[in-house]
Write a structure and sequence with these properties.
The protein is α+β, with helices and mostly antiparallel strands. It has a domain of about 230 residues: 2-Layer Sandwich (Nucleotidyltransferase, domain 5). The chain is built from 18 helices and 24 strands. Strand 18 and strand 19 form a beta hairpin. The chain is globular. The termini are far apart.
Length: about 475
Amino acid sequence: MYLGIDIGTSGVKAVLLGEDGAIVGQTTAPLKVSRPHFLWSEQDPADWWQAVETAVLALDAGQRRWVRGIGLSGQMHGAVLLDAGDAVLRPAILWNDGRSQAQCDELNRRAPNMTEITGNPCLAGFTAPKLLWVREHEPDIFERLRTVLLPKDHVRLQMTGEKWSDMSDASGTLWFDVGARRWSPEMLTACGLDGAMMPALCEGSAVSARLSNSVAARWGMARVPVAGGGGDNAAGAVGLGVVRPGETFLSLGTSGVIFTVTDGFRPDPNAAVHAFAHAVPGRWHRMSVMLSAAACLDWATRVLGLNDVPALLELSLAAEVAPDLLFLPYLSGERTPHANPAAKGVLFGMNGATGPAEIARAVLEGVAMGLRDGLDALTGAGAEVGDISMAGGGSRSDAWGRIIAATLDRTLVWREGGEVGPALGAARLGRIAAGDGDVGTVCVAPAITATVAPDLALIETMAAKQPRFRLLYRLLKPAF
């Protein structure tokens, strides 16, 4: 057996894989986000550990005893601050916390060659500007700071007593030399930090540490190895078998991510494309991120007074295709390709005949066109993207799938375990760390459960809308 643990924002998921690679058990323990002030988003790291224990102990005890390796995945960019005794100094500042925009400007001034080192633009969601915010607004805490950990790596500390991270998760800090796969002294110095404050680094499929005696006894396991693991998207790619150059997946959750593998470091920060190390050796990835994907469907469901998102999807089928109706899906600003936290959601082109069905359809199309902007940003540097594997809770819809396939002009592929995502990839990394296979034999694509090929007529319809979608953003940008 192999155990994968994913520390998400809304919950912790634990997955058990059998020797044949099939999922034999899975559990989830919920988490809550604290928003004490405007733009703030925080969690207590103690809640992560409590949720991990709840999820793991809910798995079958008879199966747990046969676990040979464990992998971790988790939400990226979070900042867990520890003192000299490894006590948590304040609640963790999460990936979707927006308080540090001013510190992004300061970091750009302090490290003018930042994008050459990190391959990424400085955004408030990344870890480094959060530390500059703490240094400015909570100097007493910064003075006591001795270690900074990412969310999954703080869980690892509770599991093993050791401080490690992996290359993919470290890539999202802006302290990491992504091409060289090592911490950057220059970027750490720019934030008033040094290498001694950072965890050791290993590849996601390598052994970082072993379960402590106390945790192993409580979980009913041997002191098995814990893999380096990966950031949530990189681990999700491992779960889908997306580990070879050109392989691509689309994750449709609250946000929307298109992730494509490269065999080298291919940064393109001017297009707000992320270039990170992958969770497997010798691989990197490029990633477009739209901040509101399935979140737009949740919004439309609420505004239209519907019971749930499936009702919104059903309603959209009754709509006539309205060429003049456009929806800009920027309910939380936008990352790729605009890098504009001030962007706003817009419903444009209504007339007296516009009804709830047309609005529902426009929202689905708007998110799809936002994804197309991200895909074009990825392929603009010459990357080849073929069929796209699907992941995330928002991906399980034929109606939306048809719109997305036509807008991207790509065949969409659903695979077994796609809904489990990062936890499945974490378990696979745990298997490799245990010595029971390598990347080539373990990280294979799961069986296909469904495909949606792009419809020619709908391709033409969406291709005609895309230029007007982009023009509307450009015209409204000064008003934002």
